[in-house]
Design a protein that fits this description.
Structural class: alpha+beta
CATH topology: Arc Repressor Mutant, subunit A
Helix content: 55-70%
Strand order of the largest sheet: 1-3-2
Order of helices and strands: HHEHHEEH
CATH class: Mainly Alpha
Shape: globular
Distance between the termini: 39 Å
Number of helices: 5
Number of strands: 3
CATH architecture: Orthogonal Bundle
CATH superfamily: Winged helix-like DNA-binding domain superfamily/Winged helix DNA-binding domain
Length: 94
Amino acid sequence: MKTRIEETAEIFKALSHPTRLAIICGLVKSDECNVSKMVDKLGLLQPNISQHLVILKNTGIIEGYRKGSLVCYKLVNESIKKIIKDLELENVKD
C-alpha cells in the first residue's frame, strides 16, 4: 500500500508533463472533453493524447465516461482543480 506522500508524488509527476498539464487546464475550463477535441486544441496525434490520458486516469486525476458514441473525460480530483485555478493556469494561452 502506498503512503500519502507516494501518492502525492505520483500526482505531481503526472502533472509535470506540459501536455498533461494542458489537458488538465482545458478540463478545468470546460468541465469535460473528448479526445477529438483535445487533438484539435493541442495539435497532437490521437495516440499521443491517449497515452497522456492513461497516465492521468491511473493517478486518479481524471475519469472517462461514455457520452453517446464518444468517450469524454472530466477532472475528478478537486484538489488539482483548485491548484490550477489558484495558479490561474486555465487562462494561459500558448
